[in-house]
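Q: Start with the shorter request: fold the first protein.
A: Done. Sequence, then structure:
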Amino acid sequence: MNQYVLPLLEKEPFVSVIIANYNYEVYIKEAIQSVLDQTYSNFEIVICDDGSTDESIKSIKSFSDKRIKLIVQENGGMASALNSAYKNSHGSILCFLDADDYFGKTKIETVVENFKKSGQTGFVVHRVMRVNEYGEEQGILPLFSKLPNGYLAKELLRNGGIIKELPPCSGLSLRREIAELLFPLNESFKTSADAIIQRIAPLITPIYYIKQYLSYYRLHNNNITYKGSFSIDKHIKEGNIWEQLWNEQNNFLKKNKYEFRFNSLKNNYSYCIRNYVQYKITGEKDKELYYFNLMLNNSEHKKEPLIRRFYWLTTRIMWKKLFVVTYNFYTKQSQLKRILSKLNT
């Protein structure tokens, strides 16, 4: 696939900060204030309130800064809210911010500098600092792995459309030329609409990663990506979203008359792990064994550290209750992981 050719950015490009808000009156003021406190001043904040039933709108209207633009609509879900905010934005660069997250002071300045430095990159990503609901730091994400970098369309097509270690919404920024190819987003995505950006933008433009963290990603029970105690219902729901996203990626290729199509999700290591976990817990033995073998035969498994490969081998003979305990430790935010993560900042 050929990547999209981008024009040069102006000396001080106008930046749109895009926020979709639904019932986050507790956090939205901190999100807005973090943008107003930026070292870079040539920006607008475009907020779409998606039918909040709390005092979110009152909180947003408490700010008098003319750079804040509020759109109010009936509840339509995350994709609908992002579409409305994007439609009313004018920036050459778009920085996305979840309403429950917030930016570090140099976020926009650093993103602009890196877009200009990277030239033909239309998608800039960076690490995020996880914080709890009280704003206490819980360590960076990703913990040890590097963020993806470069033009990864071939890899994306080969492995079923998933690139590991991309940050959540508040770590994503786009050139407008790339956003024009992605928006409007499919409004059937009531949640996780930012994942459409993660899955499709790398098809048409290189990724440029910034090593340091520039945003704060809040962990609480209301965000779908929060890794608290393991829940099989949430696990299955996330798996369904992955399949929706795979269909969305292929629809993008069809719509834009590309001859390529994504390989099956079964080619993706993370997807095989996800399904193996699901079927082990739900007791569907044939499917459990099928995805266990796919997982072990995947080339990514052979690249895993020995301790992880050993863990997955031993899970095959674990009782379900023991497996849930060990997998819960493997995935959730623990004190040990927080300490290791802070050492890696």
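Q: Next, the second protein, separately.
A: Sequence, then structure:
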Amino acid sequence: MRDKPTYQGLPRNVQDTENNPSDFSTQRDRESHLKNVLLAIRDVNQLIARETDPEQLIRKICTSLVKTRGYFNAWIALTDEKCEFVESSAASGFNGGFEVLTSALHRGDFPLCMRLSLWADKVAVTRNPPADCPDCPLSSEYEGRSGLTCRLSYKGRLFGILSVSVPEKFAHDSEEQDLFAELAADLGFALSKLKTDVQTHRLHQIVTSIPQPMSLVSDDYRYLAVNDVYAELFGTVADNIVGKTPAHFFGEQVFENEIKPRLDHVLAGSELQYEIQADFPGRGKRWMFMSYYPYRNEQGNIAGVISHGHDISDRKQAEIALKESEIYYRTLFENVNDAVLVHEIGFDGKPGQFIDANRVALDRLGYTHDELLKMTPKAITTEKG
């Protein structure tokens, strides 16, 4: 697929047309037409840079393409991901025909030019629409003109089609088609970016609503979203984290040796859980139970990592206290000079089986530890009695 196209060479190409004779009625007509197309492309690029709503974008683009007289009319149809039906559409320069076509588009009844463009990544030319597509509601509005139609796509994701009408004598001109194809590619790039922005915004809303620390890191290791709980760990606000890398907060060495390998593991398709003690600027040393999950975009490709943390410091402190208590108890238990035995108490309140005994007790009774744990106080009394 194309990368985001540029139009840096187009003015030069238009200038070249002045030096190359053609079969058109006048070179001046062709030059004037291509300059109008370039004006339309310039306006479209400005719209792409500032518009954030896909439906508003395609509506304004259709209007702009016709307003500059680059094209006689223009229409755009955005489809679902499987290209089975049209989700939204826009048009300019038609006299009622597009309203009829809209109903068919939403039923999944696509005209031939649209089907050809969705099937093949090239400009579809309809030389004489009234004769070639007599059943199309738009064909009567193409008298003396040809149709150019091209898919809107980016990196394998189809978004729909762009179709315009041009003077019939320009329809097969290679430069005309190249301009139109790059215009469609640019719009495909813009639609992809808007889709990604909407998806990221939606996920950002989910992330910020979670009461535990949560973040979304891109596949190039930059924070795309974090919630306020996560930001508090670093003593800052979420906006100061988004766009930066974990290395900015944890240091390059910790990132390369500890964080990046875990992120790469998840970016390869696996989930990951682990416990770690980290020193956070906003909270000091905290024990965290971390869960990492792959984040997939609408195409199902892994585009980042979702991290979800639980502060388990209280639990870890309780575990440490319990362990220290056990060590203290065992030290006292083994070093006291008296015999100490521990046994169960049955439901009837009577002594049950031994569960522990210190060295003094074992020496005085003459049993090994394993032997004693199989006995009860009553068994010892009976045997010794």
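Q: Describe the second briefly.
A: The two ends are 94 Å apart (CA to CA). The chain has a mean pLDDT of 83.
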